[in-house]
Specification:
mainly alpha, 10 helices, about 65% helix
Length: about 220
């Protein structure tokens, strides 16, 4: 992200101006004011740096927005990979994917809020860069579900539908989760992970008649 310059402009802040710090502050500004309402000058003021100091690292709002999107997907892929490579049984891994997703969204709430709300502001070229990374995240989760089906642990339903349902549960918390609320992010993650793994019925409850099975994955 930094570019070669003859001389780095001075910062008014004593804190180092790192990529992570710029992204975190910019995400908060974008979340509060919206992409169109925010300016690089707003971000520089909140960072307590001069505009030239910020321009040393970033040139345009779209470039900064793209970096936010790349950061979100990189964090998500890194944490997903840790779950996949763990020694947990496959059913627990799938529930852990949701738990990890929820904890990550809660930890980086401003960044994920921008990620979900401002995607239309990216150019087609920038979308292509981000979508390639998002596709990898989806493919890794689908592969995990495939393995669960093959092991006789998961129902043989369309893996994309299964994984997108999981993503929907986790990602939507950016709309309603309150870090100062009654439940902590870990409480929410554990409860929703258990619901994803075991459903809403009490253990051993007969419940309602199951829906007829859909076509196997890959068939109409």
């Amino acid at each position: 992200m930094p570019r070669t310059r003859s001389k780095r402009p001075r910062s008014r802040s004593r804190r180092p101006l790192t990529r992570e710090r710029i992204i975190r502050v910019a995400s908060e500004v974008f979340r509060q004011r919206g992409y169109h309402g925010a300016t690089l000058d707003d971000i520089a003021k909140l960072l307590r740096v001069t505009k030239p100091a910020l321009y040393y690292h970033i040139r345009t709002k779209e470039e900064l927005l793209t970096e936010i999107y790349v950061e979100v997907v990189d964090i998500a892929i890194r944490r997903l990979t840790e779950v996949i490579n763990s020694d947990l049984p496959i059913a627990e891994k799938f529930a852990k994917v949701l738990e990890t997703n929820i904890l990550t969204v809660a930890e980086y709430l401003p960044i994920f809020t921008v990620f979900f709300q401002e995607k239309r502001e990216l150019s087609a070229e920038k979308h292509q860069r981000v979508n390639a990374k998002k596709l990898l995240y989806t493919e890794l989760t689908e592969k995990l579900y495939h393995e669960g089906v093959a092991a006789g642990v998961f129902r043989d339903v369309d893996p994309k539908l299964a994984t997108f349902s999981l993503f929907g549960m986790g990602n939507w918390i950016y709309q309603w989760f309150n870090p100062a609320g009654r439940l902590s992010s870990r409480d929410v993650a554990q409860i929703m992970g258990d619901l994803a793994a075991h459903g809403y019925l009490l253990r051993g409850h007969a419940g309602v008649a199951p829906l007829p099975p859909g076509p196997p994955a890959g068939q109409e």
